[in-house]
Amino acid sequence: GAWTLDLDALKAAVTPATRLLVVNAPNNPTGWTLTRDEQQAILAHCRGTGTWILADEVYERLYYGDETGNGAAPSFLDVAGPQDRLVVTHSFSKSFLMTGWRMGWLVLPPGMTAAVGKLIEFNTSCAPVFVQRGALAALEHAQAITPALVHHLRACRDTLVPLLQDLPGVSLAVPRGGMYAFFRLEGHDDCLLTAKRLVREAGLGLAPGSAFGPEAAGWYRWCFASRDTERLREGVRRLSAWLARV
To answer: N or C: at which end does the chain have fewer Cβ atoms within 10 angstroms?
Structure first.
């Protein structure tokens, strides 16, 4: 199976009364990614309704497809014009291994710059100087950093996903982007309780799907950004042994 977008349902939900549509792709936690055609359809619809799009594309560079030609996931910036009501968010946390440094950037219409500047000034003032310098270094060396990271994450994904799919009661679609495997565990719908038990009884940390919304009860997010694939194999062994006991 695969995660898909119900484009007709989305269009029906976005009306002229809709001020803002937030789209996260590549998606956390599912790894689902918009296609270029879907982006164009969403953009055209939002132009008609006057709806702003806030595109969360922080996982754009952590992409395992090859149809875009640049190694990154499809971006709204590739299909939008300068007058479109579009704001795109990016982060250094994922593609540049700067988690916790709290640094990112926005791509937005020039007319919004002054207002966003005020928002930043009165909320965070500014990022520390050493973080800004680290971000500049990351951009300078991006072509040396990110492709190697994606290569490693692909190996981690391709190790973890088949092992999980072989477990009884597990439903899992292969993620096309990001660093997470999002899977359903049959018979364990109370995912918060199960996640707590897995930590205590198996030494395995998973994020409960309910953290992302009530619709994800019974689902679990496994981060496969491991320093080596053996840790992932060991994690699956722990999960398998725990499932055999309960």
So the answer is: N
What does the block give as tokens for 94? 């994922």
Query: What's the chain's Rg over C-alpha atoms?
Result: 20
| Residue in this structure with the two tokens 């725990």, named with its chain if needed | 242
Q: Which pLDDT value is given to residue 195?
A: 98
CA–CA dist 206, 135 (Å, integer): 29
Per residue in 96-144, pLDDT (tens digit) is 989 999 999 999 999 999 999 999 899 888 889 999 999 999 999 998 8
Identity of the amino acid at 160? L
Packed helices 229-245 and 191-202: angle between N→C axes, nearest 10 degrees: 110
Nearest to 61 by CA among 22, 94, 105, 24: 94
Nearest Cα to 191, choosing from 173, 172, 210, 204?
A: 210
Stated as kind and residue range, the H or E segment containing 61 is: none
* CA 93 distance to own-chain centroid: 12
Return the structure tokens found at 17: 């009364």
CA-wise closest residue to 3 among 32, 23, 34 = 32
Q: Which residue bears the tokens 């497809």?
A: 65
Cβ burial 182-221 (10 Å sphere, 16+ → b, else e) = bbbbeebeebeebbeebeeebebebbbbbebeeebebbbb
Task: Please tell me the distance from the alpha carbon of residue 47 to that of residue 25, in angstroms, as a whole number.
Answer: 20
Nearest to 13 by CA among 5, 25, 4: 5
Question: Which DSSP state fits 68?
Answer: S
Q: Evaluate the omega torsion of the peptide bond into residue 168 and state whether it is cis, within 30 degrees of 0.
A: no
- Residue in 31, 27, 29, 17 with CA at minimum distance from that of residue 55: 27
